[in-house]
Amino acid sequence: MDCSPITGQKLLILLAATLILQHSTTAYGAESSGSIRMMQPGCLDKCGNISIPYPFGTGKGCFQEPFNVTCNETGAYLSSTEVRVLDINLTLGEVRVQNPHIAWNCDYPNGTNSSNGLNILSLDPFHKLSDKKNKFIAIGCATLGLIAGSSKGKNQVDFLTVNSCYSNCTDASSVDDSTECIGLGCCKTSFPGNISSFSTTTGPFLDSPAIQSFSPCSYSFVVEEGWFKFNRSYINSINFASKYTDGVPLVLDWVVGNESCS
């Protein structure tokens, strides 16, 4: 066995390279994509600054169904759902996308109201909403937020799951000052896994002109856990949804199917 200094240095270099590679395969990043950069021969590996590794791809023969990515001047989009891609991670089997659906409802003391109704995001069978990396958020006072998800059971029968959270505050002074959603102006909850499509809605739990005078609007959405930070000004801002006109980040799990690795 050769234990010369040169061999020892080579082992250190190899170890360092291995650690760097392991780090790059677990962290999100424009260049990492959770793996060594890989693509089909003759195919583009990036759309703007977004890496597109196989089985995702853009262009004929560059992807495995249904991982076709549409690339244009505004960004990369999953063709099956038309949501914008933020990052693809091969190691974790995740793709971060932009969720464009923020449900909102406004009830004013003068009796007028407006809303954008149900906000539905339908995914193809190979993508599921991550129940570990996302949370359901509702903003407002005396506000009830609802999320309804659709999935398939063991016998491939569709079933519906529903979850909710309630945000309670009686006046502006009772709104929580922290950035966390603890139920005073903002609430959050988790939801079951294996959801292939979901809708969110929100509205007042109480018809109270006193509350409507300082918090006329409510909002609900699904967002990547840890990304959203609550601000008490959100409860009296009728333009909250316009603050995120492009949506909020969302994490999807994906699988290539019930097939062999080869």
Uncertain runs with pLDDT below 50, 5 residues or more?
Answer: 1-36
Strand content: 35-45%
Termini separation: 37 Å
Mean pLDDT: 82
The structure class reads mainly beta
Structure described in brief:
The chain is mainly beta and 262 residues long.
Task: Describe the fold and architecture.
With 262 residues, the chain is mainly beta. The protein folds into 2 domains: 11-92, no CATH class; 101-245, no CATH class. Helix content is 11%, strand content 35%. It has 3 helices and 17 strands. The chain has helices at 5-24, 209-212, 240-243; strands spanning 46-47, 50-51, 69-72, 75-78, 84-89, 94-99, 103-107, 113-115, 119-122, 127-129, 134-139, 143-152, 158-167, 186-189, 197-204, 217-224, 248-254. Strands 8-7-16-11-14 form a 5-stranded antiparallel beta sheet, with no helix packed on it. Strands 5-6-17-10 form a 4-stranded antiparallel beta sheet, with no helix packed on it. Strands 9-15-12-13 form a 4-stranded antiparallel beta sheet, with no helix packed on it. Strand 1 (46-47) and strand 2 (50-51) form a beta hairpin. It is elongated. It starts with a helix and ends in an 8-residue tail after the last strand. Mean pLDDT is 82; it is low at 1-36.
